[in-house]
């Protein structure tokens, strides 16, 4: 297959893919991969296959094609191709919750400075790295990466990247319980979709609606949460987007649990768990198991709750997800207090505080914890964040956390 024919077949596949004929598109692209002798065409078709498999939640296949793409990039001996292929490798590992590998590949991308493509891709690299740091509950570094990605988006007038970063920032603030910002950022993403998204994939609209649903639920606005989640799920079903279907099912389950309707929540958790297991989203599985645990606790089935916690703890330890572990210790504390088991209770109280210290989840001004309840937070330029009221009350000449870190042990 020659260069022109390769190009035609890739375009044919893209047209089929955009018309929701995904399996036909994949067959066309696989044929190009088998028959084309043009390395640049092969590189491009591998990019199409990587994107398609990412959206279908076939993350192991996504990774497989990313590895082949790296070999093709080396064959082409072009740093631009190499940068793009390392980004795809980073994104594949991010989807598979291999966060340390994601960070490592992102750093490789950022070290390839100076190529034209790398300058355009740096925003996406920063976003992927931010998502990985968030998966590891390293909040300051996550925020630093998201803000860097946002600067790249603004400098390059890249509205699609800005939309994706806003959704990640919504997720970030939902995790540390500043629910006002958790809603603000996906609403901003939805505005970008409305203003600029005529030619965009509907996944951007679905993504913003899902993150809005999460924030609305956290704020107790359950009817609004349900409306947004239903719209997101409708698009996810139309496009065969399995990862988003799993997240929407989790959100539906959480909404029903918030209404104390455990009987409706449990089957939705089960459906979400089934898809999360199928696609390999272990971070999502932790969230599902946390929800299931809370359902058992509502029904006072404490032994069943502890079984769910045990499964979630194994996953959280494997991923290095410290926030998941903190939440699990908190739930254990409540269960063992109810059971009157003092030794186990004390053990989890100690572990809970160790997690808080490790994640620096406390305000450097008042010393109170962050992420325990809904609170307005404010980040300084260094990406350390504090209670907004503390910054307003005390003011600051620079960051107190950074000042503490700059004092060498022995000089205190």
UniProtKB/TrEMBL annotation:
UniProt entry keywords in alphabetical sequence: Cell membrane, Cytoplasm, Cytoskeleton, Lipoprotein, Membrane, Metal-binding, Myristate, Phosphoprotein, Postsynaptic cell membrane, Repeat, Synapse, TPR repeat, Zinc, Zinc-finger
An annotated GO BP: synaptic transmission, cholinergic
Coiled coil: none
SUPFAM superfamilies (UniProt xref): RING/U-box, TPR-like
Keyword ATP-binding found: no
Domain of life the protein comes from: Eukaryota
Membrane topology: Peripheral membrane protein
Pfam families associated with the record: Rapsyn_N, TPR_12, zf-RING_2
Residue intervals passing through the bilayer: none
TPR repeat coordinates: 123-156
Domain RING-type residue range list: 363-403
Main location: cytoplasm
A single Gene Ontology CC term: postsynaptic membrane
GO molecular function per UniProt: acetylcholine receptor binding; protein-membrane adaptor activity; zinc ion binding
Location relative to the cell: Cytoplasm, Cytoskeleton; Postsynaptic cell membrane
Similarity section: Belongs to the RAPsyn family.
General function of this protein: Postsynaptic protein required for clustering of nicotinic acetylcholine receptors (nAChRs) at the neuromuscular junction. It may link the receptor to the underlying postsynaptic cytoskeleton, possibly by direct association with actin or spectrin.
Record's protein name: 43 kDa receptor-associated protein of the synapse
Organism, as annotated: Rissa tridactyla (Black-legged kittiwake)
Lineage: Eukaryota, Metazoa, Chordata, Craniata, Vertebrata
Gene transcribed to yield this protein: Rapsn
């Amino acid at each position: 297959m020659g260069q022109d024919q390769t190009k035609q077949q890739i375009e044919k596949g893209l047209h089929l893919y955009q018309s929701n004929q995904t399996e036909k598109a994949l067959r066309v692209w696989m044929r190009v991969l088998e028959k084309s002798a043009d390395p640049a065409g092969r590189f491009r078709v591998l990019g199409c296959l990587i994107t398609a498999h990412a959206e279908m939640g076939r993350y192991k296949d996504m990774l497989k094609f990313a590895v082949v793409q790296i070999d093709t990039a080396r064959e082409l001996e072009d740093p631009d191709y190499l940068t793009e292929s390392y980004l795809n490798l980073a994104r594949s590992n991010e989807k598979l919750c291999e966060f340390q590998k994601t960070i490592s590949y992102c750093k490789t991308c950022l070290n390839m400075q100076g190529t034209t493509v790398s300058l355009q891709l740096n925003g996406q690299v920063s976003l992927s790295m931010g998502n990985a740091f968030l998966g590891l509950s390293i909040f300051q570094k996550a925020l630093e990466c998201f803000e860097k990605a946002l600067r790249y988006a603004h400098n390059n007038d890249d509205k699609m990247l800005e939309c994706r970063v806003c959704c990640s920032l919504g997720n970030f603030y939902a995790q540390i319980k500043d629910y006002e910002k958790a809603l603000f950022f996906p609403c901003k993403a939805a505005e970008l979709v409305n203003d600029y998204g005529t030619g965009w994939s509907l996944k951007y609209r679905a993504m913003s609606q899902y993150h809005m649903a999460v924030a609305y639920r956290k704020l107790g606005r359950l009817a609004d949460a349900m409306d947004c989640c239903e719209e997101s799920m409708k698009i996810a079903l139309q496009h065969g987007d399995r990862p988003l279907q799993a997240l929407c099912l989790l959100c539906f389950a959480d909404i029903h649990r918030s209404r104390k309707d455990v009987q409706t929540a449990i089957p939705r958790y089960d459906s979400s768990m089934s898809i999360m297991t199928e696609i390999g989203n272990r971070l999502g599985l932790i969230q599902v198991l946390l929800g299931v645990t809370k359902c058992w606790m509502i029904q006072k089935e404490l032994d069943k709750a502890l079984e769910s916690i045990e499964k979630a703890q194994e996953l959280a330890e494997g991923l290095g997800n410290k926030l998941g572990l903190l939440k699990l210790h908190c739930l254990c504390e409540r269960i063992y207090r109810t059971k009157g088991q003092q030794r186990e209770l004390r053990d989890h109280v100690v572990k809970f505080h160790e997690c808080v210290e490790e994640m620096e989840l406390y305000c450097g001004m008042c010393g109170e914890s962050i992420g325990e309840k809904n609170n307005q937070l404010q980040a300084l330029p260094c990406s350390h964040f504090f209670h907004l009221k503390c910054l307003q009350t005390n003011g600051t000449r620079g960051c107190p956390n950074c000042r503490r870190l700059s004092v060498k042990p022995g000089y205190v």
